[in-house]
Automatic annotation (TrEMBL):
Stated name of the protein: Monooxygenase, DBH-like 1
Pfam short name (any one): Cu2_monoox_C
Organism of origin: Salmo trutta (Brown trout)
Source organism phylogeny: Eukaryota, Metazoa, Chordata, Craniata, Vertebrata
Similarity annotation: Belongs to the copper type II ascorbate-dependent monooxygenase family.
Compartmental location: Endoplasmic reticulum membrane
Length: 557
C-alpha cells in the first residue's frame, strides 16, 4: 500500500489515446477530467520526443498520478508531488506486481512548476515518451479499438534554399499492417500557421481537433491500399520551396480495423524523394467524383447500382478559363471506392461528345488501388466535363449504404495528376436531396434544421425520424432500387468547385442539370504504364517521423 502521507489524491488510468478535448489556453492542446466529481483536471501536450502534463487537483495535500496497463495500481508508473512551504517537489515512483510502491532509481519525470492556493494544487511535469527505464511505461498508443479511424498529423516541409521537385513518393506500410492501413492522403495547409502547430496530431474530422487542421484542404498526394510507389514522368515534378508550395502539410491515415484488433501500434507513412534538378512542369492534383456526403446513398439488395460524380463544364470553364485557357494535361489517375465498388471509370466529354475514358477498371479490386500512368497524356480544356462513374453491388446488405468515411460506407472518386498546376483542388458534385426524399414519399422536413441528419416532419410514418432512418424504413425491392437509381441520375447536381485552401470558385454551391450525353464510348482495353518503378539518380531524402505519438505514423521526405 502507499504510505499514509501519500493518500491525499492518487489517480491511475490505463494506457489511453492522448486526446480528450482541445484546450485553447496555457499552451496545452488536450485536456480531460479523471474523476467523476470533477476535482482532478489533467492537461497535456507532446511532440515527437517528450510529453508535458499539468494536473490541477482540489486538494492541498500530496498529489499522485499514475500510468498503468489497465488502470490498476499494480505494475504502474507513478509520479507524486506537491507544494511544501511554498516550494514544489516531485518524485518518480513505480508499483510492483504486489502493488508495493518504490522510489524509482532513475528519476525521469522533470518538475516544470508547481503552486497551490487555499483549495487547489497545480503541478506541471514532463518526461520523454520513451525513457528506456523498465519501471516506466512507454507512452505509445495503439491503433484505436474501433472499426474505422482517420488519424491526422501536421508536419513542416524541410526548408530548401531554392525550388526543388519531388520526383517519387513511396508508401511506408509497416509489415503486417497491409490490411490495416487503407489509405494515406497528404494535404497542403495554410502557410501562415504558428510553429506551435507542428507535430500536432489528432483524430481527423473530430469536433475537438486543432483548428489548424481545417486549413488543410488541398490534396498533394494520395495513396490507397494495394498501391506501390509512384514515380513522376521525367518532365513533371511536385514543387517544393517556392512561395505557393506547401510549407505545412497534414498527413491523414485511414485505419480500417473491422476485426477490432487491440494493441496494434502502427508506424506507416510516406517517403518523398526530391532533387534541385528541376523538371519542365509543376504537377497538381484535382479530386473529382461524388462529394463525400450522406446525400450519396445506395439502396440495399442491388446487383448493380450506378453513381455518377460530375466535374462540371461550368467549374472547368471558370477555373481553367481564368488559370490556364490552353488547358492542362492529365498524366495519371487513381480511382477510389470502398467495399461495394465493382467497376469505376473516369469519362471525358467535350461539347457533349464523349471521348475515350481517362481511366477505367471493370474489375475494381478494393485491395488494389494506385495511380496509373496514362498511356498518352490527355488534354483537359475549359468547358470540358468529366464523370466519375462507379458501379456497386449491395447484395446481402439489409440497410442503405451511405456516402462516408468508413470502408462499409462508400466513395466514388478519381484523383487526377496533371500539369501545369492551377488553382483548382476539387471538382465534384452531389445529387440534390429533395428528389431522393420525394421518391420514398417524404413531404416535409422539420425546420429550422437543428440536427444532422435532419429530421422528417411528414408524412406520419416518417415523422420524427432522421432522413437516414426514413430511407432505411422504406421497403426497398430490386424494382424500386432500379427506379430510384434511374431517377437519381437525372436529378440536378450540387456543384463543388474549390480552390486551394478554403477558397472557392464562384460556381461552387450552384445547382445545375447533369449533362446530356449523345453517345457512350465503350472503354478500350486498359493500357497503362507502371508508375511504381524505383527512382534512381541524384535525389535527396529527408525524414519527419511521428515516432511515438497517438496513432504512430511516419512521414518521410
Amino acid at each position: 500500500m502507499l504510505p499514509a502521507k501519500y493518500r491525499s489524491v492518487l489517480v491511475f488510468f490505463g494506457t489511453f489515446w492522448f486526446y480528450a478535448s482541445f484546450s485553447h489556453g496555457s499552451g496545452f492542446r488536450h485536456s480531460t477530467i479523471l474523476d467523476p466529481h470533477g476535482k482532478y483536471h489533467l492537461k497535456w501536450r507532446f511532440d515527437r520526443r517528450t510529453i508535458t502534463f499539468e494536473i490541477e487537483v482540489e486538494t492541498r495535500g500530496y498529489v499522485g498520478f499514475g500510468l498503468s496497463p489497465n488502470g490498476a495500481m499494480a505494475l504502474s508508473d507513478i509520479v507524486i508531488g506537491g507544494v511544501t512551504d511554498g516550494r514544489p517537489y516531485l518524485q518518480d515512483y513505480f508499483a510492483d506486481a504486489k502493488r508495493k510502491v518504490q522510489r524509482d532509481v532513475q528519476q525521469n519525470y522533470r518538475l516544470e512548476y508547481g503552486r497551490e492556493n487555499n483549495t487547489h494544487t497545480v503541478l506541471a511535469f514532463s518526461r520523454d515518451l520513451l525513457t528506456c527505464d523498465t519501471n516506466d511505461k512507454d507512452i505509445t498508443v495503439p491503433v484505436p479499438y474501433k472499426d474505422t479511424t482517420y488519424w491526422c498529423q501536421m508536419f513542416k516541409i524541410q526548408k530548401v534554399q531554392q525550388k526543388h521537385h519531388v520526383t517519387r513518393i513511396e508508401p511506408l506500410i509497416q509489415r503486417g499492417h497491409e490490411n490495416l492501413v487503407h489509405h494515406i492522403l497528404l494535404y497542403q495547409c495554410d502557410s501562415n500557421l504558428n510553429e506551435s502547430e507542428l507535430d500536432a496530431s489528432h483524430e481527423c474530422y473530430h469536433p475537438n481537433m486543432p483548428d489548424s487542421f481545417l486549413t488543410c484542404e488541398t490534396i498533394v498526394f494520395a495513396w490507397a491500399i494495394g498501391g506501390e510507389g509512384f514515380t513522376y514522368p521525367p518532365h513533371v515534378g511536385l514543387s517544393i520551396g517556392t512561395a505557393i508550395d506547401p510549407v505545412y502539410v497534414l498527413m491523414e491515415v485511414h485505419y480500417d480495423n473491422p476485426a477490432l484488433q487491440q494493441g496494434v501500434v502502427d508506424s506507416s507513412g510516406l517517403r518523398l524523394f526530391y532533387t534541385p534538378e528541376l523538371r519542365q512542369y509543376d504537377a497538381g492534383v484535382i479530386e473529382t467524383g461524388v462529394w463525400v456526403s450522406l446525400y450519396h446513398m445506395l439502396p440495399p439488395g442491388m446487383q448493380e447500382y450506378v453513381s455518377e460524380g460530375h466535374c462540371t463544364r461550368e467549374c472547368l470553364q471558370e477555373s481553367l478559363g481564368q488559370e490556364m485557357p490552353s488547358g492542362v494535361r492529365v498524366f495519371a489517375v487513381l480511382m477510389h471506392a470502398h467495399l461495394a465498388g465493382r467497376a469505376i471509370r473516369t469519362r471525358h466529354f467535350r461539347e457533349q461528345e464523349e471521348l475515350q475514358p481517362l481511366s477505367h477498371d471493370e474489375e475494381f479490386d478494393f485491395n488494389f488501388q494506385e495511380f496509373q500512368l496514362l498511356k498518352e497524356e490527355r488534354l483537359l480544356l475549359p468547358g470540358d466535363n468529366l464523370i466519375t462513374e462507379c458501379k456497386y453491388t449491395t447484395k446481402g446488405r439489409q440497410n442503405m449504404t451511405w456516402g462516408g468515411l468508413t470502408t462499409r460506407d462508400e466513395m466514388c472518386l478519381s484523383y487526377l495528376l496533371y500539369y501545369p498546376r492551377v488553382n483548382l483542388a476539387r471538382c465534384e458534385s452531389l445529387p440534390e436531396i429533395n428528389g431522393q426524399l420525394k421518391f420514398i414519399g417524404v413531404k416535409e422536413i422539420q425546420v429550422p434544421v437543428t440536427t444532422w441528419p435532419f429530421m422528417i416532419k411528414s408524412p406520419k410514418k416518417y415523422s420524427n425520424l432522421s432522413f437516414t432512418e426514413a430511407m432505411d424504413k422504406y421497403r426497398w425491392s430490386k424494382k424500386r432500387g432500379k427506379s430510384f437509381n434511374e431517377m437519381v441520375l437525372q436529378l440536378p447536381i450540387n456543384v463543388r468547385c474549390s480552390r486551394w485552401g478554403q477558397e472557392e470558385w464562384s460556381i461552387q454551391g450552384t445547382l445545375v442539370s447533369p449533362p446530356e450525353v449523345k453517345s457512350e464510348v465503350k472503354p478500350p482495353s486498359m493500357v497503362c504504364r507502371s508508375a511504381s518503378e524505383p527512382h534512381s539518380g541524384g535525389v535527396l531524402l529527408f525524414t519527419l517521423c511521428l515516432t511515438y505519438s497517438v496513432v504512430q505514423a511516419c512521414f518521410s521526405l
